[in-house]
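Amino acid chain:
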Amino acid sequence: QVQLVESGGGLVQPGGSLRLSCAASGRIFNIYDMGWYRQAPGKQRELVATITSLGSTNYADSVKGRFTISRDSAKNAVNLQMNSLKPEDTGVYYCNLRTSVLTTWGKGTLVTVPS
């Protein structure tokens, strides 16, 4: 069974920074990509950033230039460096892992940027 554990959320003032981390454990084969999604109150879950096993990245337009996703393949871990945070970045951030046969989600970590 594959499990994802996120860490690093919290309360940060506008313009501040946070770093989210996600570690995967279990029997994991043929990872396609790992990434971060977020869900703001009253809204649908949306993509934030993903990174493939080959290192290709994809970002939501709203976070380009502010967020950076990175991956430690040896540890099956993914990080999200978030800079210049805005109130609209508030939400629960979920780690995601996709392989050729399954998709797994973490339980989420809350990021709050007050207005």
